[in-house]
Amino acid sequence: MHCTTMTQKGQITLPVDFRNNLHLMPGDSLKCRQVGDEIIVKKVRKPTLMDLSGCLPKPKRSFTIEEMDAAVGKALGKKYAK
């Protein structure tokens, strides 16, 4: 068990071994939850590209590489034609 002291501003310092074990870096977010007279602190996981999986509906049909290339070329042509 580790002890820490709260400052007048209500801030506490997490012991270095806790920070190291959780791989905490400056700016990381933490979630705090009170359970009785204890506080549980968890690192907020940063979202990854895999978290986006399934957020868009499946297209009605599959597109070929050629169709995708043509669509990208058309969009770029419009962007740079201005």
Cα-to-Cα separation, first versus last residue: 65 Å
Looking at the overall shape, the CATH architecture of one domain is Ribbon
Helix share bin: 25-40%
Q: How many individual β-strands?
A: 2
H/E topology pattern: HEEH
Strand count, sense and closure of the main sheet?
A: 2 strands, antiparallel
Side-by-side strand order of the widest sheet: 1-2
The low-pLDDT segments are: none
* Rg result: 24 Å
CATH class membership of one domain: Mainly Beta
Estimate the mean pLDDT confidence: 90
Which overall shape is indicated by the principal axes computed on the Cα atoms?
elongated
Structural class category: alpha+beta
Strand content: 5-15%
Q: Which fold name fills CATH's third level, the topology of one domain?
A: Pemi-like Protein 1, Chain: D
Query: Helix segment count?
Result: 2
